Amino acid sequence: MDQPAPISSPPGASAGATRVRDRLTIPVLASGGILMAVMQTVVVPLLPDLPRLTGASAGAVSWMVTATLLSGAVLTPVLGRAGDMYGKRRVLTAALSLMTVGSVMCALSSDIGVLIAARALQGAAASVVPLSISILRDELPPERRGSAVALMSSTVGIGAALGLPLAAVVVQYADWHTLFWMTSLLGALGVTAVWWAVKESPVREPGRFDVLGALMLAVGLTCLLLGVSQGGQWGWGSPRVLGLFLGAVVVLALWWWQQLRTAQPLVDLRLVTRPRVGLPHVAALLTGFAFYANSLVTAQLVQAPEATGYGLGLSIVATGLCLLPGGVVMLLLSPVSARISEKHGPRITLALGAAVIACGYAVRIADSRDLWMIILGVTVVAIGTTLAYSALPTLILRAVPAAQTASANGVNVLMRTIGQATSSAAVAAVLVHHTSLVGGAPVPTLHGYLLAFAMAGAIALAASAAALTIPGDSRPDGTRRARGGTRGARDEAMEGA
Question: Which end of the chain is more exposed for a tag (fewer CB within 10 A), N or C?
Fold first, then answer.
């Protein structure tokens, strides 16, 4: 099922134009992934000033981040399933269009309600990476697929590293609406490029879309992530947060029951519960947690005032530049991670990447006072993230049928999102409990930051251990490594059926 049926060129298209489009497929899809990550990041430098600029409270302004997180988590598996059924390029174009419309709304308004709604629309772009990876599987020959998927996976970190300094420079020297006019233009160019350069995938899974399953999943995930993201502000023991968690458990349990009894489910849970699919999802959750703490903690630490004894008092622009080397490294190392997976298998690449993330946090624990050591630690974590994130979709591609690639990768990205949301809540909880007064204001202590690094490093080691337990890794030629004996061969044959 990996080899799609040939797809004809559009009427009137010349052979030369078709060849140009074929060569541009990977760059166009990768630029869409980078643009998605930039869109998610650009609002960060604005957050301290948005209460003054919009006349809203700090709590209301925080929803510009929360809304994107929630809508992205809900829409990623839904749009992945829609892509498998109705066409991946069609759904990818729709997701990028929603992102662009949201950016235009932000550029035109200063009303906090409109801005939150616009950021929720932009959350649809979280599905760009899994849809693009599915297109690459369908369109590329096996020898080109590994490096392309690795590059596509790395766009999340590349875009995040580029977006922060870009946004900080624009915010510092221009009206903040200019930032969203720029991203609107880039979004429009991205939609046009995808429509022109990317062919529609011929691989489909026909059937009826599971509307009930999509609605139940949306409600359950909203309750879960809303409780996780707002627990620190509302109180972890408050009736609202406990009610949200209880609602998430009930709704997701009912959703699981409904999915197992639906002829054409939104998510094939029988496939998800197989170790070759389920364990990469577990590793994605843990890796997302470990990765997110890097930029989250670093930004706060280097901007802390020098009076703390450890802070560097850097500006937002300088902070973004500290994270920039990590983005450059992710871009350069994506082909290397693909070669490691080809030679040793993606589960080894995933385990190695998670271990390197842990090493990066060890560097941060050893020295978080000198700028060059901070940049070194950030970059080491970025190296590990490149290896891990490039291996995760490859593991999924080798374990699921071609017709379910987008939905399966969408679930994997969802697990990363849940890991990132949990990381944000956990880091905030650690820092809140380790503060001291500096100039009359509570500021996290260095000990609190070091505890956050230790927590993220321990989670990274857990991700590495989970990766090593993934069975049935494949050789570069597509054959499975034998697990020994007739029983192992029979089990692998059943899993590959």
Answer: C
Which single residue is written with the structure tokens 């000033």? 49
Asked if residue 100 has pLDDT above 90, the reply is: yes
Q: What is the 3-state secondary structure (H, E, C) of 253-274?
A: HHHHHHHHCCCCCCCCHHHHCC
Instruction: Quickly tell me which residue has 């979004």 as its tokens.
Output: 187
- The phi, psi pair for 478, rounded to 5°, reads 95, -10
- The amino acid sitting at 159 is G
Q: What does the block give as tokens for 27?
A: 């760059």
Rounded CA gap, 299 and 314, in Å? Answer: 9
**Which amino acid belongs to residue 128?**
V
Token output for 261 = 């009894």
Three-state DSSP class for 182?
helix
Residue of 452, 457, 460 lying closest to 350 (CA atoms): 460
Residues 6+ apart with CB under 8 A from 62: 47, 233
DSSP conformational letter for 444: E
196-215 pLDDT, tens digit each: 888 887 777 777 889 999 99
CA dihedral 249, 255, 261, 263 (to 10 degrees): -160
Q: By C-alpha distance, which of 19, 33, 57, 121 is closest to 390?
A: 33
3-state class (DSSP) for residue 238: coil
Angle between helices 275-303 and 346-366 (to 10 degrees): 20
The Cα angle at residue 163 between residues 160 and 166, in degrees rounded to 5: 155
- How confident is the model at residue 17, as a pLDDT? 58
Cβ-proximal residues to 288 (8 Å cutoff; 6+ apart), any chain:
415, 416, 417, 418, 419, 420, 423
The H-or-E segment that residue 443 falls in is: strand 441-444
**Residues 323, 380: contact at Cβ < 8 Å?**
no
Give the model's pLDDT for residue 184: 94
Distance CA(360)–CA(341), nearest Å, equals 21
